[in-house]
Amino acid sequence: MAKNRFSSSAPSPAVSVCVGFTPVTEKKATSNEFPPGVAQPAIRVLKSVGITRLEQCAKVTEAKLAMLHGMGPNALGLIREALKAKGQTFADGSG
Questions:
Q1: What's the whole-model pTM score?
Q2: What's the number of CA atoms in the CB half-sphere (13 Å) around residue 57?
Q3: Residue 76 dihedral angles phi and psi, to the nearest 5°
Q4: Range of the domain at 35
């Protein structure tokens, strides 16, 4: 049986060029990103309301973030601890 030339897990060069895909093996965290472990649904909902950096969470109350669909106790806890590590808290002083 002939081997399929597209069976590799890496995208073909044509696909990479067509869709602008750039394979990334490791993403380095920056100070503006959310802490590791925050689930993608939480990150998506934060970005949907204009919060794109961790530091912006300090301008919102924890209660308001908790009302967002996708923000669970785990994400809030991780964000709370990350803010605390930077000497910041949520807008209501919690954390």
A1: 0.65
A2: 35
A3: -60, -40
A4: 31-95
The tokens of 36 are what? 């590791």
CATH value at residue 86: 1.10.150.20
Q: How confident is the model at residue 8 (pLDDT cuts 50, 70, 90)?
A: low
Question: What DSSP element (H or E) covers 24?
Answer: none
How far apart (Å, rounded) are the C-alpha atoms in residues 88 and 95? Answer: 8
- Cα angle 83-86-88, degrees, rounded to a multiple of 5: 55
Q: What is the DSSP letter of 90?
A: -
Greatest alpha-carbon span in the chain: 66
Residue 35, classified by CB atoms within 10 Å of its CB into exposed (0-12), middle (13-18) or buried (19+), is middle
Q: Rounded distance, CA 85 to CA 79, Å?
A: 10
Q: Count of alpha carbons within 13 Å of 81, Cβ hemisphere only?
A: 9
